[in-house]
Specification:
mainly beta; 8-stranded mixed sheet; 5-stranded mixed sheet; 67 strands
Amino acid sequence: RSAMRSRAAAALLAVVACLPLGWALFEDEVGQYEWILQHVGRPTALAYSADASDRVLVGTSSGVVASILLKDGTLQWRRLAASVDSIRLLRTGSRGLLSVTDSGLVQAWKGASGDLTWQREYSDGVVDLLMAGQGPKQNAIIVRESEIEARTMAGKHDWSVSAGTAGPMARFWAAALKEDGTTLCAVAAAKGSSTPTSLQVEVATGQVLKKTELPRAVLQGFEDNSLIVVDTHLVVLAGETISIYPFCGEGVTGSFELRKVKSKSAAPFTLMPWQRTSGVFAATNGETTAIFGVGPKGPKHLRTFEGVAVVGPVYSVHDDETGQPVAIAVTKEESTQIQLLDPASGNVQPAINAPGFTATDHGPARLLLVRELSSGEHRTVLSAADHSLAGIQGTKVAWTREEALASIQAAKFYGRSLAGAREVKHHNMSLGMVGLAEGLVELAAEMPARLGELARLPADIIGYVSEMVSNAAGKRSKKAHYMMPNTKLPTSGEALRSFGADKLIITTTKALKLFALEATTSEIVWSKYLGKGDEMECSSEACRLRMWLLPSSAAVHAQLVIITPAQKAADGTVYPEQLIWLDPVTGMVLHQEPSPTSSHLASILQLQRKGHHAPVVAEPPPMPFLLLDSDRRAHVMPSTSSEATKLLEESVDRLFHYEVDSVNQAIQGYAILAKGGSGQQLVPLWNLEVGAVGERILASAAPVHSEWDHVPVYIKGDASILYKYVNRNLLAVASEDTLHKGNITSLNIYGLDAVTGHVLHQSRIVGGSQPVHLVACDNWVIAHYWNQRRTRFEITVVEFFQAKADDGPWGILFGGAAALNQTKSAHHLESPVPLQQTYIFPTGITAMGVTSTLKGITPRSIIMALTTDHIFRLSKDTLNPRRPYAPGSGLADDGVAIPAQFAPTKEEAMAPYSPVLPLRPTDVLSHYNVMSQVNGIVSSPTSLESTSLVFSYGLDLFFAPVQTAKAYDVLSPGFNYKLLYASVGTVVALFIITSYWAQCRLLQERWK
């Protein structure tokens, strides 16, 4: 009998262990709703290998080395060489290719498969990478600052030459191979020295054959970054003079005066990076580009082009052919112009115009490579200032890769369907006659707008019905939507759109380009390039696009407000910061005006209408708001709007602003004067200087999804109520103790009221340190951090409740006006009761987000991008600080125990506290897809309360619907509708037949 009991217990345990597998997916279910877009990033180097003639090899600023098909732009393979470094050099050889990062990491790859064969990391910088020899005897010559070394393509060391050969404290600045490939020439000199030296080294043995002194102007060009290496010549630009110095003992020194080049711009010329075009280089001033050749008497002016022209190599099918032309590409307002130029004569072939790739959409060209096929046809690969990579075949743009999507800085969802969410407006209703009169006046004022909406209702309904019919038929209007190469559409994306997921994902990128993506399919609906051709690589607020959806992303009608950074174009023109109002659905510019101040624009405050809606018109005016600059002055925008000034006067008592200053280590709050007008100075209200107590701010977070509904209470198992402390002005700040008291770091988490500056909660985590990620939503704050003391990652959750007893439902049902929602000042809010718990998390994260639903009823999930390259979902119910401590755990003492009012009851199905959070495979949203370098996660609700849309962005983009409590309000896509319809049809048919038969029997009975 005991054996039978043990077997039964074992069987029960096996069943329980297999329960999570019931939540797993079949392999064919992956890709029903989610999609992933793989990118390579901003191209920094292009290369071509004869061993893979149908591909182009790309190195990018994201540390990616990739192989892309010339025909359609699809990725053949992609390898992440360095996660936080840029690929600077890419060279192809007879047995593979080599890449060099900015930090000195040299890696060798197989060109066909992308397999890594060997790598070596150097402590000093790598100056250049040269390929010497042919076939199996080919060597890679790595030119470093301190040494030149030769290695076989298998990574074996052959020889090395130290920079000390040229003198004490010397370093290598440049190197090149002679045309016969037997001699290496290198320039070495100490910083600030007067005579740089050219060393001639035998490639076969590494023996120094000759030393030659070079002019001082060469070293000055290296130090000023006004020098490029063209074959075995040094090209120096000093003022308006281009000088050429041979450094292999051959040729003569010559110069050219750039004032001889005719240009409409007076901006100075700069040398463009040399792209290994034999004997040809270029200089531009943004308005004009001059092409030069290296002649026997110095620089030779070959041709002048209007605009920024890029010079690239042409790879022919005939390897032994001499006098190969070079390619010239210029992106213009209407098309891209491509020409082939003969370096000997300067003659050009007739231009080829490709109208599908323009400077308006992509900016000026940056990198160029042309492949000549055996048929004489040319395939061009072109990179532009917006980080895009395009393949051009003849006059047709065959494909375009929008690699700016690999550098997204911010993203927002915006719904556009009739079935989508609607903005929720709360009105404080008065029961008196005065309030009734005011309400009638407001209704009368709104009547014309409501009549206009009613007049448009039939057309909207017809459009919505036709859209539903087309969706049901599996047809969809493509319009001008564009899909990236390698895109795989979700199999059930149309079904998801019909449930309120017809939304756009609007993004800003480092390339100063806006994109609007179809949420369910990843199609690019519209894009807008706002750059002036000068890439902005800094990460501060001063050089990035910033966007706001006003009044909110939950509004029926919203406008997208963009602040562009101050830019300096290649022609020297300075463009101040701009404010642009856009239609988020179409990307059409509604209004645009320059910054009203010379100070940096910091933020904006929405000017809300009090007690009435905005009139609905065919062409809505620009949305008004208050613009704040870095000098803490407020400006009413649009500057000519009288409505904006009026709204400021109406809402001035409700406008507050706060700043988290990570430079001065302070948090400051400000108010707006009542009669200050535009340009007024903000009034300081409060100040919290954490730097004064030896702390450094690491992260901050404000509550997300406050535009959507939420549940203000929590109902316990015994039907009693806990009132959540929901404060939209909550600000969470994490700081690190820089004094290291006791040689141990500590992390401090503050909960502040951003209006009053009151510290609602403060907790000190001993051993906590960066990296820190914060997220706040509803009444809770979650922090993920590294604990140095315990050498592990941890998650701390703090949840705020009101210190208010449950009076039962009587006051809510019969309390009269006192029970209605009342507006309450932040100065009169009572202090909350914080509950806190800490959990052990197995891995680090790079980004964190929170799901959102339309009514806030479904439990939220925390979405995390793990350092293991996965997107992981963790239910907020798991991170519940009310979880009871198990008896005997040693945690249920007076200092840790949960107060009795907030303790869980016996009726609540709440799991006891367990310190370790498991990583269940069924909670990995990205499945087997690799998601690396994730920078952010955003979410948005659908019309289904169970479903939230999640979008993560980084090097790759990932979208998926998330159902924290499963799909309790919708049938699964695998539901057998045919069986359901057949069953219902059978029941209806049997009902009709039996009814008819019963009536016949009844009639016969009556005739008897």
